[in-house]
Structure formats: structure tokens, C-alpha cells
Amino acid sequence: MKGIFYAVLGGVFLTLQGTANAVIGEHLGTWQAAVLTQGTGFAAALLIVWLTGDRSWKQLKQVKLRYRFGGAFAAFIIFSNITAFHHNGAAITVSSVLIAQILVTLGMEKAGWFGNAAIRLRAPQWIGIALMITGILCLSF
Amino acid sequence: MMLTGILLALMAGSLVSVQNLFNNKVNAAANSHTTTALVLGMGFMASLGMGLLFEGADLLSWKPMPVWFWFSGLLGIGVVTCVVKGVRLLGPSYGTTIVMASQLLCALWWDSTGWFGLEQVTFTPQKAIGVAALLAGILLFKSKPKENKQHREVRHELS
User: Fold this and answer.
1) d(CA A64, CA A115)
2) Which of A6, A28, B51, B145 is the most exposed place for a label (fewest CB within 10 A)?
3) Does residue B80 share a domain with residue B25?
4) Hey, are the CB atoms on B79 and A10 less than 8 Å from each other?
5) Mean of the pLDDT values across residues B80-90?
6) If you ran DSSP here, which 8-state letter would residue B60 be given?
7) Are residues B150 and B79 in the same domain?
């Protein structure tokens, strides 16, 4: 239940962020907006780490180097997203992003990359994915 | 040209998944506050680099802007913290589908009410079908195969 709460709240934050970024991007331009939102977010996150006395950054050394750069993908995601948006508009872009995200996450979980026990995909799961993709397409276009 | 756009969008979506994987690995070693700070710090530096590459020195000349812009980063903290926790607690695929459904439903809700000065979009039967398909898909995805349940029960009895 706690997981559902966080996932739903994450979706709310993502939508709020998308709306705010659109307004900020229009005012400042894409890259200034990206620098501003992530820079202020970083500063506030550091403040939270300090205030909560979280010392687990010492353990970051145990994390493989490439995993520590995950956040940097944001810049490439922003770039491809915006370029795609200019080519095709919102509907195709948003639905393609979401469908790719579902399928790639599923593939990585199936391959056991997340370290959990590999999930079993049977007919109901595949029909479920097909229905979700239908839903995404109906909501985007 | 249309194909280029679609390929770029597919790439963006795949990168979001890879980013979730990486963040998940960081979170396995560090607390969620530290994970969030690292992710946003990396995003900040990469965006700064790409911005300088595309816009040069223009990137560094700031126009006056509304005060709330300075707090927009807090939304990023909410996103990273909640998505990492959701994925960890629910598993990657299930977690991702819930995040997406929430995102799509929020967007639909705000679009149809015209909140945040968004252009109001009418709620059509097609959208209603979309919501139904999305939610049915998630329930079906999460439904456990029968034999699996039995296996589990047997295991529980054994242990």
C-alpha cells in the first residue's frame, strides 16, 4: 500500500513538474529551464541531506561508477523529448515515450537486471500490457 | 522526419527506464535523500554541459523571472524520491505502470478542468475508454497466475 502511495504521488509530481517546466521553458528556454530546475532541486536536496544528518553518501563508493551517473540521462531525455516534440507534437511523442518506458522496464525486469527475482509473464500480463498501451494511445490522441 | 521524432521519443522513454534502473542501484547502497541529491546533481551538471554546448554563453545570462521559478526544483525532489521508493516497494514494472497511470490521470483531470491556466480539453468517450483500458490493464498485469498462488501456499506451509 505504501508503494502504491509513493508511485501515485510520483505520478502527481511528474505531471506538476511537466506543467511547471513547460511554463518555465517558455519563459527562459529549454536549457536554462533544465539548469534552473535541476540546480535548485540539487541545492535543496543537499540541504535536506544535511538537515537530516544522512551520512549514507559515504556508501556511494560501493555503487558501480556507471550507476552513479544515472541522473545525467536527464539531459539526454530532455533533448530527445524536445526534438521529438518539435517533429511530431505532443500526442505521438508522449505516447511513444511511455510505451518505450513500459516495454524497456519490463524487458530489464524480465532479464533480472534489477536484481529481483525475474517476473513471470503469462497471458494475463501480456494482455494487461496491451490494454495499458491501448489506454495510453486513447488518452494521448 | 516523423520517424526521427518517433525514434527520439522511444529513446527518451528507454533512457527513463535505464535511469530508473541506475537510481535503483544507487538507492540499494545509499538512503533516499542522498540518492535524490546525487540524481539531481548529475542532472544539473549534464544539463549545464548540454546547455553550454547548444547555447554557449547565452545560457549564463538570466532574465528576471517570477519567484516561484526558484522553487520548481522541489518538484524534482518529489519526483525522484517517490518514483525510487515506489519502484523499490512495488517492483520495477508494476511500479512504473502505477506511476504512469497516475501521471496520465492527473494530466487528464487537469486538462479537463483547465487548471494551471492550461487550455481546457474536453473529456471525450475516447478518453473514458482510455482510462478504463489503462486501469483494467494494470489489474490484469498484477493478477497472479493460479498455480503460482498454490506454489506460494505450499511454500508457506513448508516453512
Assistant:
1) 14
2) B145
3) yes
4) yes
5) 95
6) G
7) no
Does residue B159 have a pLDDT over 50?
A: no
Of A16, A17, A79, the CB nearest to B50: A79
What span, in angstroms and rounded, lies between the C-alpha atoms of B85 and B90?
Answer: 8
Q: From the list A14, A60, A75, which residue is nearest B79 (CB)?
A: A14
Whether B106 and B78 map to the same domain: the answer is: no
Residues B138, B70 within the same domain: no
Q: B9-27, pLDDT tens digit by residue?
A: 999 999 999 999 999 999 9
- Contact at 8 Å (CB) between B38 and A25? no
> Which of B90, B115, B144 finishes a domain?
B90
How is residue B65 annotated by DSSP?
A: -
Judgement on whether residues B9 and B85 belong to the same structural domain of the protein: yes
Q: Which residues of A touch B33 (CB under 8 A)?
A: 45, 48-49, 52, 54
Question: A136 vs B134: CB contact, 8 Å cut-off?
Answer: yes
Report how many domains make up chain B: 2
Q: Which of B26, B46, B142 sits opposite A75 (nearest CB)?
A: B46
Q: Cβ A41–B107 below 8 Å, yes or no?
A: no
Pairs across A and B, CB distance < 8 A: 414
> Do B102 and A10 make contact, defined as CB atoms within 8 angstroms?
yes
- Same domain assignment for residues B86 and B53: yes
Q: Do B137 and A134 touch (CB under 8 A)?
A: yes
* Cβ atoms A124, A90 nearer than 8 A: no
Give me the pLDDT at residue B143, please: 87
Do residues B11 and B51 share a domain? yes
Grid coordinates belonging to B119 = 487550455
Q: Which of B120 and B17 is assigned the larger pLDDT?
A: B17
**pLDDT at residue B149 tops 60:** no
- Region of residue B145 (phi > 0: left; psi between -120 and 50: alpha; otherwise: beta): beta
User: Domain range holding B56?
Assistant: 1-90
Helices (H), B56-124: 73-90, 92-113
Query: Pick from B90, B118, B137: which residue ends a domain?
Result: B90
